[in-house]
Amino acid sequence: MLTMKPTMHMEMPDTERILSEALGTSLQHGETMARHTTLKVGGPARWFWAASDVEMLARVLGLCTVHAIPYLFIGHGSNLLMSDAGYDGLVIQNRCKGCVVGEETRAESGVSFGSLFLQTARAGFGGLEWAIGIPGTVGGALVSNAGAYRGNIGPLVKSLRVFADGTDQIVGPEWMEFSYRDSRLRRSGGGSTVLLSCVLHLTERGDPEEIVARAKLYQAQRRAKQPLSPSAGSFFKNVVDRALAERVPSLTSGMRDSGVIPAGFLSEACGLKGLRVGGAEVSEKHANFLVNAGGATASDLRSLACQVRAAVRARFGVMLEEEVLYVGDWTQWSEPEIARETEWLKTTR
Predict the structure, then answer these.
(1) How far is it, in rounded angstroms, from Cα 179 to Cα 201?
(2) What b/e readout covers 202-225, taking b as 16+ CB neighbours within 10 angstroms?
(3) In CATH, what class is 228-348?
(4) Model pLDDT, residue 27
């Protein structure tokens, strides 16, 4: 998951003292964020702390709020693109992994989403088969309302423990304002809100071996279609546009009936597989995966994303929206000129 507190803060010497007193030797300095993102890019964090206890996490969040210390809250770093300049504040990595499985499953937000599926499946609870192979944490899945194969996490949520508006509180699922691959936290970039834990209502019961077998079918489909190179998963959201679905040739009847056009389908139709900017590449295996093909920078990846968006817009008249969130200091990065992208497009059509 990802949450970013605004960067208005006190003088750094005071911040250093406060964080050092609270976190001691567990506080790290200048940690390279490329080590903590699935794209393997990103500059240094001024401070870095790995949180493994949810109560301690809540206390540190309160401390940051009182003293206006900027923080970025991340999980496995699977749905974000950290800038080359890094983050001028405290990056908190979520390693809070408590989980109690039952019809009402209680999971802390740092639990791996894949691990949550396995724990519930082994206890005979279905409903999360589609989650196998989805990277990231439970918190990240909640922020993006993750899903696949006609399933998603939003409808399973009974309640959430959140740190919001400077307080630790329990809220219902309506608070998240879930929609397709979206929530209030994703739309706002998280602000200072952090998801601490959730309760999921799992009503499907079954034989553990059968539940795992169904999940393995999904996993096999993913492995057949998705690249092995470092990526953030699907980079763009699918497009929901019934009128466009009627006009686009070669869509399956199911896609046309639902009005959902996969972003990868549009990218591939523009001939973008294999397109490169520096070390960043549109995967030859799946056109909605932007991968680090070797030595990529965050700027390479964001510039490549701009070219993909420009090409799809020029051909289909729609602007792709990123699933991936841009975080850190991007002030030194400039979006490529649309005219330049248009010239590039003309040479490839």
Answers:
(1) 18
(2) beeeeeeeebbebbeebeeeeeee
(3) alpha beta
(4) 98
pLDDT at 213: 94
CATH number of 2-94: 3.30.43.10
Residues of the chain with CATH 3.30.465.10: 99-209
pLDDT the model gives residue 9: 46
Catalytic residue flag (residue 309)? no
| pLDDT attached to residue 339 | 37
234 is catalytic: yes
CA nearest to 303, candidates 279, 329, 269: 279
Active-site hit among 31, 108, 323, 341: 323
Q: Which fold has domain 99-209?
A: 3.30.465
Q: Give ranges for CATH 3.30.43.10 in the chain.
A: 2-94
Q: What is the pLDDT of residue 337?
A: 73
Out of 109, 144, 234, 299, pick the active-site residue: 234
Positions in the chain whose pLDDT score sits under 50:
7-10, 339, 341-344, 346-347, 349
Please give the C-alpha separations between residue 243 and each of 150, 178, 236, in angstroms, as whole numbers.
Answer: 21, 24, 20
pTM, entire model: 0.87
Query: Considering 46, 161, 181, 309, which one is annotated as catalytic?
Result: 181
